[in-house]
Design brief:
The protein is an alpha+beta fold. The strands form 2 sheets. Strands 2, 3, 4, 5, 6, 7, 8, 9, 10, 11 and 12 form an 11-stranded antiparallel beta sheet that branches. Strands 13-1-14 form a 3-stranded antiparallel beta sheet, with no helix packed on it. β3 and β4 form a beta hairpin. α1 runs parallel beside α2, α2 runs antiparallel to α4 and α3 packs parallel to α4. The protein starts with 22 loop residues before the first strand and ends with a strand.
Length: 249
């Protein structure tokens, strides 16, 4: 378990200077988080104007200026796991700032490429009404198909995988402990995970509760499947042989 993070660990004044990235890595969904998932998302949220508070559980809670959107770095609290990996970030949205219960939640483990999570947060921040969507699940699959991902033969309307069959996005039954304002049982939500080596541990997992707007899932999926190389100082060991690494000149 990681040691609790405190605000000064993420501040621009005290954060140690990280060495410049030395590699360009593709595909993005197997690039990992470079060990800086907390710092990179803190940068994104700070740029968006979200405020941050440390909590008694040694987590860091970020709230948007209108109070409708939240993001919490919860790794130190170790609330639960997805695919055997600890959940690191929890995102949420409320219909009203005073609402006690979020309309939906999204959970990400360590290892998720921070670019995709950052793009999702930008999409959440940009929505006038973050808790309501108008598009159907097809918008998620369309976003992935546009990036060259393949629809699942058995479930073409609810699942897709990358051309290397190492990352999957699927609309399916929610795993335990995924909170949503809709209390009905047997709800489905979008799940995403990367498993570059069969029978080996997952690289990362994500779970979207049932009420997350499909447009937001599509924003995450489109970024996840982007062919643009991402900078990394380190690459995941269990993705070796499945990624292309080019040293930066």
């Amino acid at each position: 378990m990681e040691a609790p993070l405190h605000p000064h660990h993420l501040s621009d004044r005290s954060r140690p200077n990280l060495p410049d990235p030395v590699y360009w890595v593709t595909p993005r969904h197997l690039a990992g988080d470079d060990g800086v998932l907390a710092e990179r998302i803190d940068d994104t949220l700070t740029d968006l104007g979200w405020r941050m508070w440390p909590t008694s559980r040694h987590t860091l809670l970020y709230v948007s200026p209108d109070g409708l959107r939240g993001a919490e770095w919860i790794l130190a609290a170790y609330p639960f796991e997805l695919g055997g990996l600890p959940v690191a970030w929890q995102l949420s949205a409320r219909g009203h700032a005073a609402s006690a219960v979020p309309e939906w939640n999204v959970y990400f483990t360590t290892g998720v490429p921070y670019e995709a999570l950052a793009d999702l947060l930008v999409a959440i921040d940009a929505r006038e009404v973050p808790d309501v969507g108008v598009e159907g699940p097809e918008t998620v699959l369309d976003a992935l198909s546009a990036r060259g991902w393949i629809r699942d033969v058995d479930h073409p309307r609810t699942a897709a995988t990358d051309p290397g069959f190492s990352c999957h996005v699927s609309l399916e039954m929610l795993p335990p402990l995924i909170d949503d304002a809709d209390p009905r049982p047997d709800m489905v939500g979008w799940q995403a995970w990367a498993d570059p080596v069969v029978s080996a541990p997952y690289l990362w997992c994500a779970s979207f509760s049932a009420s997350v707007p499909h447009e937001l899932v599509a924003a995450f999926a489109s970024s996840l499947a982007s062919p643009v190389p991402v900078p990394r100082r380190i690459v995941p060991e269990n993705a070796e042989g499945r990624i292309t690494v080019v040293r930066r000149s």
